[in-house]
Amino acid sequence: MPLPEMAGMLLWIGNHVITLSRFGGFVMNRKLSERWHGPFWLGGMALALLPFFVALGFNGPRAPWVLEAGKFGDNVIRSIWWALNGSALGGLIWLKLSGRTMIGSFRLWCAERHQFHWMWFIVSVGVFGFHNYLFLEGFRFTPIEKVSTMFGRVLTGAVIVGVYWLACSLSGALAPKKMRRWPWVVAAFLPFVMLADFVAILYWKNPIINLLNQLDEMGSFDLGSNLASSGVPAPPWAVVLSFFLVVWIFYLLFHWLAARNWISWLKMPRWILLVFLCGLWGGVWAEKAVGTSWKSRNALRWGHNVYDVHVIAGFEPPLGVAQFDVSFHPKALFEEREGVLGGDGKVKRPDIFIIMVESTRQDAIAPEHAPFLADFRDKECQKIGTTWASSNSTALSWYGLFHGSLPVFWPGEKAASVRESKLETPFWFLQLKQADYRMGIRTVCDLSYRNMGATSFGTNQELFEVYEQSPAGDIHWQDYYDQIPQREKTSFTSTVEALKLAPSSGNFHFIALDSTHYGYRWHEDFEPPYADYYDEAGIPGFPSDEDIASIKRRYHNSVAWVDLQVKEFVTELKKQGRYDDSVIIVTGDHGEEFYENGSWFHSSSLLPAQTQVPILIKWPKGVEAPPQASASHLDLLPSLRDLFDLPQVPGMLGRSLLKASDGERTQMSFACNTGVSGVCMAWYRDGWVATFVWENPFSYGPPEEIHLDDIIGPDGSIMLREKPSEWLDLLRQKFPDAPERLFSKFNVVTEGP
């Protein structure tokens, strides 16, 4: 609740412990006052935390100052700040009702020579500095620009840590004697969180706040499914317990250090620290002000935009090198009467099999560890050059494939499914059902994660003959991961058995595999091709070339396991006489990075390592499929519609791969998880990549303002243009088809950076 309302409630409570004096006035009974000191202090904290507890813990109504679902980490930070202020307010009200003067008490607090926890201060600022330095890795600064930027960030860290110390100190000073150390548990939280963020950026190039924000995307806190879907082999209770244990250890460590004579000698009046912090703040202001006169445009932009926390305003550079006012084309809308599948099409209701392999790079399909898929690609499938996912994360990638739309619409539909517990089925599945297709969805993952099930298939599960998933809570946390290969075998076996009883055509099966997710598993009966693979817990923070090669060998072992499963499944299709007339699509949901750009895994950038995936398409016998220079997930739905002679629909970004192309088209990917780069959208064509950023990629609708971040050619980044119009000319030269396909309005802002 707002601080004024909180103060009013505490004052109302205070009125019940006021007694009438013999002089006719009201005074606080001092003995009773001491007894009520703790309840007032704790009451202020509890009232401050109550709106967050209701919203985050029970998915209840959200107060205006509690952020929306999908901002769990931001809300935790806000709740800590509100708790400190609420407890301080409760203590101040107690001071007032006890007959003390607030101004006098504040003067005493400022003048008191207080032990300064300088060890905690130095450690926190040091971690903040190293943490911020990691953000700058990969950006092209001159040495002096990087030194200047880091100097400003260290000063910023000192201001933030100092203000944090003052807040904890004020809350502690206003607490009862037995509770005065409690706020310093919160202080111990700060270096731990920065260390955790340091590790997250080091390994994944993704701030931990982005990972924490996902914990309540479904409206309520759901740690279990997020851990399971992220490949973290630990139960939720262990993660929560470990978190509080580490914070408590930090707290005990700093207080033990504070008790040492060689540390506790430094005591100073608090007003000196206030003056010191003002001086540091002035240093931040000076670095920004002077830097604008000599730093390059990109150094100013990168040095500001990669950080979320700033202590001054007025020096914000533009997000990109050129700004555009845009209107995205609306999502593709389908006509109810546009035609029935299997009517007058090129083929009569072929079986359709889509095998989605988690975290699979295009170059992972190699004869050394995927001999069947490599041979299948070269001899049985359509010839396609580079192939791309529609996103760098699973939920968005599936959305792009089944809706035929850029996942820029995914956040809004996910929010709608959370709000209304209902989401319409993609029209493609309705058409399949109308044509009497028997549809099966089999996954070994938890489809509640990021609402993948609803946003990919709708909420009407009765439309499908089979709808199988593996909710994380239904299986013991350790078994959930260990049993992934066996669950994959079960999915294929179940599909084969269902086909034995099904008609000879008119079957649709989607099978999602997860062995190739981080952890990289295979069945215990499978003999992997590489015996010398990485088998340690975790990933090295500063890996050697051999570390990277060893981890990739483990990854390729899991690819080999998938290769064997697909081979056995295709063999069964041939035995049943279904192979020749079937559509078989094998693809990855996104790529997997192995430190090519300083990061691991996925969901941290839109560079090719995380977005280039295999797309293997075997068409029914007799269907002519011309070679294509490139393709993406967005092309699959238009191609299947073309197979049935259905018209192409406005708003679908892809094109039919069954039609010859007179040149390479631009392929596109979108991301909500942007990592430290902040890149929300990327265009790919002929070895060139254009990246774009905008405010809040999790917003519920497409943006109306986007910024060109960079254009990267075969020889690296292009940074020679100065005027926005020059960047626009280069965009249209390298990606001539992209603006018209994506936007109904695409205007450069001429007074840009």
Fold blueprint:
Blueprint: H1 3-15, E1 18-20, E2 26-28, H2 30-58, H3 72-97, H4 102-111, E3 113-115, H5 118-136, H6 143-173, H7 183-204, H8 208-213, H9 223-229, H10 236-258, H11 261-264, E4 267-269, H12 270-291, H13 297-305, E5 322-328, E6 352-357, H14 371-379, E7 384-388, H15 394-403, H16 410-420, H17 427-434, E8 438-443, H18 452-457, E9 466-468, H19 477-482, H20 484-500, E10 507-513, H21 545-575, E11 583-588, E12 593-594, E13 600-601, H22 608-611, E14 615-618, E15 628-632, H23 636-643, E16 667-670, E17 681-685, E18 688-693, E19 705-713, E20 716-717, H24 724-734, H25 738-742, E21 743-748
Parallel strand pairs: 6-10, 6-11, 7-15, 8-9, 8-10
Antiparallel strand pairs: 1-2, 3-4, 5-19, 5-21, 11-14, 12-13, 16-17, 17-18, 18-19, 19-20
Helix pairs in contact: 1-2, 1-3, 2-3, 3-6, 5-6, 5-7, 6-7, 6-12, 7-10, 20-21
